Input
Amino acid sequence: MIDLSTNELTGEFPLSITRLLDLKGLNLSENRFHGKVLQEIGQLKVLECLDLSTNKFSGEIPQSMSGLNFLAYLDLSNNNFSGRIPSGTQLQGFGNSTYEENPGLCGKPLTNICPGDELDYDIRPSGEDDVDGDDSEYERWLYISTVLGFSTSFWGIIGTLVLHCRWRRAYFCNK
Output
């Protein structure tokens, strides 16, 4: 863990930090760093904690951060990040507070809609469950499997009675 928070450090994101491949935690919060966060940050594959909050970082969140699979804590708030939060990654699993005070950011989990997403963007706040079930993949498959199971059982019994004369006679004539 490297904690350089609250030291009034200035400059751009230190490239040398991205060479510490076994680094598990990095806290650069409350300094005066500026510029872009380097794509090389994605090389820190075992990083579990990353706090870059309250600096002056700008530009887009590097796509390479989506490869930080062990990341359990992330704070990018109070910077000048812009653009879309990388989609389809765990970066969208963090709450809104992770990205607050970055007015140029858009995309899930934020309610800021990115240009071009107006038609298909789900504006439900992060963490709110899908209570109506319309979009739930699990519920959709539950309904499909229930209908298929019922249909198979129903037609299995009816089909057997219709197609097998002895069974049909035994069932209907012995009553």
The longest strand covers residues 80-84. The helical segments are 137-163, 165-173. The two ends are 80 Å apart (CA to CA).
